[in-house]
């Protein structure tokens, strides 16, 4: 099963450096331009999908609707694709969190996938639920190709597991807004992965 993993486009909180997690904010104008560029890239590269599964949070659901229309396929809300829950950190400035809690911020964003924010979940927990979803979807045998719309931080964890077999180096798997990764899952194992593709975003003028 071929998987196209897409991160949602830029939101107001992304542009202001605010931790979103399970909270939400509207797309920016730049985010709308990113979405248009992504659709053009998919059309030019001939990507196809038989179904789009999206996190039900507003920013991902919006992208899911656009992609389902582009691929002319069904759109399914899937709660397991939500972002890592950041608990009490949601709505907080990432810069302020780093300033006041440097060790915890380093653990969360760069070093320790087992770190659990107060009232939230660890990156390992969040990534594992998405990996399990993908494996079960492949086992069902329903699709040859699907598009998955999820979030930035949890996508880093997922990609680390798929590429390395463990989550330790998650920080290196950057997944910018409206970027995508493409990989194949066969018999529960990942093959032929390209991650963090963002060349379509290089020359945006808005």
TrEMBL record:
Cited SUPFAM superfamilies: Phosphoglycerate mutase-like
Record keywords: Hydrolase
InterPro entries listed in its UniProt record: His_Pase_superF_clade-1 (IPR013078), His_PPase_superfam (IPR029033), Phosphoglycerate_Mutase (IPR051695)
Protein name as it appears in the record: Histidine phosphatase family protein
Source organism of the structure: Tatumella terrea
């Amino acid at each position: 099963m071929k998987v196209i993993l897409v991160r949602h486009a830029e939101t107001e909180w992304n542009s202001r450096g605010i931790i979103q997690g399970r909270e939400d904010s509207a797309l920016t104008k730049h985010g709308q331009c990113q979405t248009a560029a992504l659709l053009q890239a998919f059309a030019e590269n001939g990507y196809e999908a038989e179904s789009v599964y999206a996190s039900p949070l507003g920013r991902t659901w919006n992208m899911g609707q656009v992609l389902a229309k582009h691929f002319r396929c069904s759109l399914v809300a899937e709660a397991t694709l939500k972002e890592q829950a950041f608990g009490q950190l949601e709505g907080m400035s990432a810069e302020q969190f780093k300033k006041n809690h440097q060790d915890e911020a380093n653990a969360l964003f760069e070093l320790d996938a087992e770190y659990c924010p107060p009232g939230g979940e660890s990156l390992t927990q969040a990534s594992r639920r998405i990996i399990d979803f993908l494996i079960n979807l492949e086992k069902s045998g329903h699709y040859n190709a699907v598009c998955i719309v999820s979030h930035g931080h949890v996508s880093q964890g997922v990609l680390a597991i798929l590429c390395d077999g463990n989550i330790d180096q998650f920080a290196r798997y950057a997944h910018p807004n409206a970027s995508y990764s493409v990989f194949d899952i066969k018999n529960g194992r990942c093959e032929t992965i390209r991650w963090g593709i963002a060349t379509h975003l290089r020359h945006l003028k808005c």
